[in-house]
Amino acid sequence: MRQWSAAKRENPDALLFFRMGDFYELFYDDAIIASRELQLTLTARDRERQLPMCGVPYHSVEGYLARLLRKGYRIAICDQMEDPKLTKKIVKREVTRVLSPGTAMDAALGQERNNFLAAYFESGPEKQAVCAVALLDVSTGEFRTAEFQGAKARQQALEELLLAGPSEVLLATSAEIPGALEKIPAKTRVEDWVWTRDFALQIVERQLKVKSLEGFGLLGHEPAAIAAGALLHYVRTTQKNEALHIDSLKFQEHSTALELDQVTVRNLELVEPLFAGQDDRATLFHTLNCCLTPMGKRMLRATILRPLIDADVLDARYEAVSEAHGDLLKREEVRRAFEGILDLERLLARLSLDSAGPRDVCGLAASLARLPDLKIAMEAMQAPLWRELITRLDTLEDVTTRIVTTLVAEPPLTMADGGAIQTGVDAELDELRTISSSGRQSIAAIEERERARTGIGSLKVRYNSVFGYYIEITKSNLAMAPADYERKQTLVNAERFTTPELKEYEVKILTAHDRCIEIEKRIFVALRTKVLEAAGRIRRTSTAVAEADLLTNFAHLAALRRYVRPVLKDEQLLEAVAARHPVIEQWMEETREGRFIANDLYINSGEFGPSLLLITGPNMGGKSTYLRQAAMLVLMAQMGSFVPAQSLRLGLVDRIYTRIGASDNVARGRSTFMVEMTETATILNTATKRSLILLDEMGRGTATFDGLSLAWATVEYLHAETGARTLFATHYHELTMLAEKLPRVRNLRVGVKEGAGGIVFLHTIEPGAASKSYGIEVAKLAGLPTQVIDRAKHVLKQHEKQERQSVQVETTPEPMQLTIFTPLSQRIVDRIEAVDVNALTPLQALNLLEELQQELKEKS
C-alpha cells in the first residue's frame, strides 16, 4: 500500500490500475468510480470494509481501459517491474504509462476518424493576443499547428480546435478555460513552465531532429510552436516513450483551405448527423465513403472539413479522377490492390509506443506486402498526379522481408506466450526449444546410454520437484555405480545419484521456457527498432496510399452515380444544370422512395449578378434542400470530387456560411433568436465577395415585424456591402418586392400544385415569387385536427385584414418610400375567396374579372 500511495501521489487525477499478480486492482475512491462505471463488484481488503477495492484480470484489461477512456477518465497503469519468482522481497512497481482520452490507442477507435489531442495557447495582452492551436493524433502521428492574430483571434482559434473534434484539450495551469470548450469533456492542465519558448521549442526540435523550425514554416510563429511543444511534452510524459512515429509537423496556413465553422459543419451534417442517435446516412461523409483503407477514410473526412482553394491542385485531382473514371479496368485493378492493407499509421504508432504485439507486426508486414501489387496497378495511370503518387509510394520490401523472416506466420497474441520467432533466427533459441519440446526423449536417451555404460539394467533416470533430475540404482547394484556418480539421496532399497551432465541438462530444461521468452523478446525489440528506422518511409507511403484510395473512391462514385467533372472559372460564379443533393439522392435510392428532382442554379456575384436569390414557397417544398444542395456542390467540387449534376461551373469559394434551423444554448443564457442573430452577425461581419452564404428563414424567432425588418435590412446589406453569392430562403413574401428595387436580387419559388384535394409539392425551383406560404395546408397534411385547421383559417383572415395597411420601409438613404403591404378592397378579396373556381364557366370567369376590374378603377 505504500507503493500504491506513492504512485497515487504522482497521478492524483488518474484512476490507478495497480498490478498485483494476475489482476489490476483499484483502491479507495478509484475503486468506487471503477465499480460504478464498469459494473464491477466492489469488495474490500479489510473486515471493516473501510478499504474499498475492485479489480480486473490483467490479460483482459484493454477492454476496461477503453470504456473508461471513452467516458473521459485519465488512467495510470502501475506495473510489476520484477519477476516475482526472482525476488524474495516485495515486487518493485512503477507507473509505466498514463492513458487519457486524447492518447487512447485501443482498437475501438473508429477507422474513419482521428483521435486528436489538442493544445490551446494564448500569448500577449488581451486586445493584441496571438492564439495558437496544436493538434496531434497519437494513434496515427498526424501533427499540425495553427496561429491566429487580430480582434477575432480567439474565436478563429477555438473554431479551428472545435472543428477537429478533439477528445482532450491541454491548457496552461494559469489559463482561463474559454466557454466554447465546454463541450470537450477532458480538459487537462499542464504546468505553466511547459508553455515557455525555451522549453517548448527545444522539445519540438528534438522530436523532429532539426536545429531550426524554419523548414516547417514556424519561423516567427512562436505561439504555434509552443502549443506543439506542450503536446509533445504531455505525450512523452504520459507514454514514457519518445514516440518516434511523430516525425513531422505541419504549420496550417488559413488561406490554404475553404473555411468552415462549427455552425456550418453541424447545419450541413457533413460528418455527423444533426442530432445524436440519428442515422449516419444523413451525413455527406457516409454518402461519399466508399474508401477501402482506414487511411483513405480519414483523408476523406479531413478533406470534407478542409476543402481546397488552390485551382491548380484541384485541376490535378480532377484530371486524376477523370482518368480513373474513364477506365473501369484500371480503376478496379487499383481498388482491388487495396484489399488486405490495414491501418499502416496506427500499426506504426502502436509499434512506436511499445504497445504492439507480434500479431500487430505481422499485420504490418501483410499490409506492406500488398504495396508492390498496388504500385503495379497504379503505374497504368498516366495523369500527372498519379505519376507523382507512384514516385511517393515506397514498396518497403526490405521491411517486409525482415518481419517475415523473423516472425512466424501466425504468432501468439503477446510475447509472453512464446513461439513468435521463426526457427533459424537464433541458434540458442532453437537449441532451447529442442530441449524443451523433446525433454522426455532426451531423458530416455540418457537412461539407455547409462544402462549400457554401467551394465545395470534396472537403472532409472527420474525427476521430482524437490531433488530435480537423478539416477536411481538399487542397493544390489551399488557396486557397479561409476566413480563419477555423485550421491544425492539414500532410500531404503536404493541410492540416488547425479552427474555433471545431468546437472547441466537440468538447468537447461528447467530454464528453457523462460530463457526462450527472454531471447524472443530481445529479438522482437531488435525487430521493432529496425522497423522504426523506416517509420518516415512508412508514413509517407501511408499518405500516398490514402490519396490513391481517395481518388479512386471519387472516380468510383462518379461512375456509379452519374457525377460530372466541375469546371473552375475565374469569375465569382455558381452555375449548375440539373443539380441533385448527393445525400438525399442516395438515401432515396437506398430506401426506394422515388427519384430525386433535379434543379438548376445560377448565381454570380459579378457586376450583372444575380448575387442574391430570394427563395419563397411552402414548408416541406424543398427550400432548405435547395440551399444545402448548393453548399454540397461547392464542397464536393473543392474536395476534388465530381458532382451530382449535368454540369457545374464554379468560381472558387473561400468560406461557406450557414444560418439554418433553430437552436438555443440555455446553459449559456442564449435564446434561439439570440443564437440566430449571433450567427448572422458573424456572417455579415466576416463574409467576402468570394463567400457562399445560405440563410434559411431568418427572423422567425421574434415578432413578425421585427423579423421582417431585420430580414429586409440584411438582404439590403448583403446586396450593397458584401456582394457574396447568397441564397436566402424566407416566408416573408414582402421581401420579394426587393427584386424590383435591387438589381442583383432575383426571386425563385418552390413549385406547388394546388387542387381540390389539397397541395402537392413539385420540388422544383422556378423563377418568380410564391403567392402564399401554404402553412395551414401543410399543417393539414401533418394531421392536425379539422377543428384546429378551420379555426386557423378564420384567424388568418382576421390577421390579413389588419395587415392590409400601408407600412413604409426605406430601401435606400434617399427619400424614396416603398409600400410593403398593398391595400385592396376587403369586399373584392372576400368575393374572390368565395368563388368556386372549378364551377365557373370561362364566360362567367371573364365577367367576374371585368366586374372586379371595374370596381378597382372606381375605387382608385
TrEMBL record:
<keyword id="KW-0547">Nucleotide-binding</keyword>
<dbReference type="GO" id="GO:0140664">
    <property type="term" value="F:ATP-dependent DNA damage sensor activity"/>
</dbReference>
<dbReference type="InterPro" id="IPR005748">
    <property type="entry name" value="DNA_mismatch_repair_MutS"/>
</dbReference>
<dbReference type="Pfam" id="PF05190">
    <property type="entry name" value="MutS_IV"/>
</dbReference>
<comment type="similarity">
    <text>Belongs to the DNA mismatch repair MutS family.</text>
</comment>
<dbReference type="Pfam" id="PF05188">
    <property type="entry name" value="MutS_II"/>
</dbReference>
<dbReference type="InterPro" id="IPR045076">
    <property type="entry name" value="MutS"/>
</dbReference>
<dbReference type="InterPro" id="IPR007861">
    <property type="entry name" value="DNA_mismatch_repair_MutS_clamp"/>
</dbReference>
<dbReference type="InterPro" id="IPR007696">
    <property type="entry name" value="DNA_mismatch_repair_MutS_core"/>
</dbReference>
<keyword id="KW-0227">DNA damage</keyword>
<dbReference type="GO" id="GO:0006298">
    <property type="term" value="P:mismatch repair"/>
</dbReference>
<dbReference type="Pfam" id="PF05192">
    <property type="entry name" value="MutS_III"/>
</dbReference>
<dbReference type="InterPro" id="IPR007860">
    <property type="entry name" value="DNA_mmatch_repair_MutS_con_dom"/>
</dbReference>
<dbReference type="InterPro" id="IPR036678">
    <property type="entry name" value="MutS_con_dom_sf"/>
</dbReference>
<keyword id="KW-0067">ATP-binding</keyword>
<dbReference type="GO" id="GO:0003684">
    <property type="term" value="F:damaged DNA binding"/>
</dbReference>
<dbReference type="Pfam" id="PF00488">
    <property type="entry name" value="MutS_V"/>
</dbReference>
<dbReference type="InterPro" id="IPR017261">
    <property type="entry name" value="DNA_mismatch_repair_MutS/MSH"/>
</dbReference>
<feature type="domain" description="DNA mismatch repair proteins mutS family">
    <location>
        <begin position="691"/>
        <end position="707"/>
    </location>
</feature>
<comment type="function">
    <text>This protein is involved in the repair of mismatches in DNA. It is possible that it carries out the mismatch recognition step. This protein has a weak ATPase activity.</text>
</comment>
<keyword id="KW-0234">DNA repair</keyword>
<keyword id="KW-0238">DNA-binding</keyword>
<protein>
    <recommendedName>
        <fullName>DNA mismatch repair protein MutS</fullName>
    </recommendedName>
</protein>
<dbReference type="InterPro" id="IPR036187">
    <property type="entry name" value="DNA_mismatch_repair_MutS_sf"/>
</dbReference>
<dbReference type="GO" id="GO:0005829">
    <property type="term" value="C:cytosol"/>
</dbReference>
<dbReference type="GO" id="GO:0030983">
    <property type="term" value="F:mismatched DNA binding"/>
</dbReference>
<dbReference type="GO" id="GO:0005524">
    <property type="term" value="F:ATP binding"/>
</dbReference>
<dbReference type="InterPro" id="IPR000432">
    <property type="entry name" value="DNA_mismatch_repair_MutS_C"/>
</dbReference>
<dbReference type="Pfam" id="PF01624">
    <property type="entry name" value="MutS_I"/>
</dbReference>
<feature type="binding site">
    <location>
        <begin position="617"/>
        <end position="624"/>
    </location>
    <ligand>
        <name>ATP</name>
    </ligand>
</feature>
<dbReference type="InterPro" id="IPR007695">
    <property type="entry name" value="DNA_mismatch_repair_MutS-lik_N"/>
</dbReference>
<dbReference type="InterPro" id="IPR016151">
    <property type="entry name" value="DNA_mismatch_repair_MutS_N"/>
</dbReference>
<dbReference type="InterPro" id="IPR027417">
    <property type="entry name" value="P-loop_NTPase"/>
</dbReference>
